[in-house]
Design brief:
CATH class of the largest domain: Alpha Beta
Mean pLDDT: 90
CATH architecture of the largest domain: 3-Layer(aba) Sandwich
Radius of gyration: 17 Å
Distance between the termini: 34 Å
Strand order of the largest sheet: 2-1-3-4
Low-confidence stretches: none
CATH superfamily of the largest domain: Glutaredoxin
CATH topology of the largest domain: Glutaredoxin
Amino acid sequence: MWRSWRFAGLMLAAAVVMGVSQWRLGQPAVGALPFAVLAVLFSPLVFPRSLTAAQARLRSARDGRPVVYWRPGCTYCLRLRLRLGRNAGRAYWVDIWRDPQGAAAVREVTGGDETVPTVVLPDGPVVNPDPAWLRARLSA
């Protein structure tokens, strides 16, 4: 679990160091703001609630929604999540750092790599899809 928060924690620590440094110099701590924003963006909080791979597969089999395999700190996953906007909740999200079965599913699709985001649709998997394409699929 801590692995999911490592990068966010690093950015938060940088924000604190920057803020304290500027405060000691008598300046406003606005330099800490970008690091604080990055801490939030790279935390698991930005993503919809993660399921296990087994739960996601079961639910997807019932309703046909895509399963998105992701990991915290992945800029491509963050780009996909932010570009999907409200439609992100229409997919099932699996954090491969929290679920070994999810990581194994990604390795199976990508030939041994843990390349994310990997989206599994009823008609097959797609590695690092274009966000506009997936958004269109989720809206339909």
